Amino acid sequence: MARGRPKKIIQVPIDQDLLERIDETSGVLAESRAAFIREACRLRLRSLEGSKLDRIYVEGYKRFPENTAWAKVSAELLSRRLPKEKW
């Protein structure tokens, strides 16, 4: 969320045991329950976006599979070049 913008207050039902774990952990981290939950939501959204990109990547390869001839040529060219590299 952008800094300086007012935050919207929401109510979310949550199981007692989960709430206790959140409170314990946020206390150890010295942050508020709200800050802890906001960061958890950000991480979840980032994870979902990463999963979405992974699916797009896999679907692309399914639509246009890698050409094995191209892979062989690439491996051959690399095998010629890499021994000359100074590691």
Task: Write a structural description.
The mean pLDDT is 89. The protein has one domain. The protein has helices spanning 16-28, 33-63, 68-81. It is built from three helices and no strands. The longest helix has 31 residues, at 33-63.
Notable traits:
single chain, mainly alpha
Question: Briefly, what is this?
Answer:
By secondary structure, the protein is an all-alpha fold. 67% of the residues lie in helices and 0% in strands.
Largest sheet: none
- The structural class is mainly alpha
Low-confidence stretches: none
Q: Give the overall form.
A: elongated
Number of helical segments?
A: 3
How many domains? The number is 1
The helix content is 55-70%
The total of beta strands comes to 0
Oligomer: single chain
The first-to-last residue Cα distance is: 44 Å
Strand content: under 5%
Please trace the helix and strand order, writing H or E for each element: HHH
Rg (C-alpha, Å): 24 Å
Average pLDDT value? Answer: 89
Task: Describe the secondary-structure layout.
Layout: H1 16-28, H2 33-63, H3 68-81
Helix pairs in contact: 1-2
